[in-house]
Design goal:
The mean pLDDT is 94. The protein is an alpha/beta fold and 248 residues long. Helix 1 packs across helix 7 and helix 3 packs parallel to helix 4. It has a single domain, classed as Rossmann fold, CATH 3.40.50.720. It contains nine helices and seven strands. Helix 4 links the parallel strand 4 and strand 5. Pfam families: adh_short (PF00106). It comes from Stieleria maiorica.
């Protein structure tokens, strides 16, 4: 199902900076009617509200606080496209005692956060004709990177859930998109020591809306991600995407 962001209402978690901010700006540039900026601190998007006026609506969402997600779904009843961008990264060594707490935090945000968003907003999207759920995963969901192994594990789990959500939500005509960036110029890339090789957040935003228009499940938006895509796409088409094709 092809979805154009023009005249749509979009909700973006983590919309106050980095990739989320670029998605918000691109959505508006491509004609979105309204964007809910779903962030832990609504005051953090005051600059975006000042720039775009009532096209940007701040809404409090913390992926580690399920009630905030439910409350947001009760308010954003007109949403057509939900983009779950927010996530956290920890960088302790896999053999460090601290890695257990790191993974628990990453799992609560990156994995359970996705589940809470999907469960809260699936009925809203269904009521509005189907729409789309977009999940920001990563190339590390396909291959673990030892310097941030716990983050890689959390993203592998979120990618697995994204595949299941694609199949489950197809029945209500909700498109699901899995986005797999490599290093992008964000605070997270700086923390991971990948800033020098990183691409602009805009390439991720543009890739998401192109995928929605072209009815594609996977998005590999940047230079490193495209290297993954060239090796992975045959497997993805044969095994990850084929089951959906056979059931429709």
């Amino acid at each position: 199902m092809s979805i154009d962001v023009q005249n749509q209402t979009v909700l973006i978690t983590g919309a106050n900076r980095g990739i989320g901010k670029a998605i918000l700006e691109t959505a508006i540039a491509q004609g979105a009617k309204k964007v809910y900026a779903a962030v832990r601190d609504p005051d953090s998007v005051a600059g975006l509200v000042a720039e775009y006026g009532d096209q940007v609506v701040p809404i409090a969402v913390d992926l580690q606080a399920p009630t905030s997600i439910d409350d947001a779904a009760a308010v954003a009843t007109d949403v057509n496209i939900v983009i779950n961008n927010a996530g956290i990264l920890r960088t302790n060594d896999v053999l460090s005692p601290e890695v257990f707490a790191d993974y628990e935090a990453e799992h609560r945000t990156n994995v359970l956060g996705l589940l809470h968003v999907a469960q809260a907003f699936a009925p809203v999207l269904k009521a509005n004709g189907g729409g789309a759920l977009v999940q920001l995963n990563s190339v590390v969901s396909i291959k673990s990177f030892v310097d941030f192994a716990s983050y890689s594990a959390s993203k592998a789990a979120s990618y697995s859930l994204t595949q299941a959500l694609r199949e489950r939500l197809a029945g209500q005509h909700t498109a699901v998109v899995s986005v797999h960036p490599g290093p992008i110029k964000t605070d997270m890339a700086h923390t991971a020591g990948l800033e020098e090789s990183a691409d602009s957040p805009a390439v991720v935003a543009e890739g998401i809306f192109a995928a929605l228009r072209e009815d594609r499940f996977h998005v590999f938006p940047d230079a490193m991600a495209k290297e993954f895509e060239s090796a992975y796409q045959s497997y993805a088409k044969s095994f990850i995407e084929a089951e959906i094709a056979e059931s429709t």
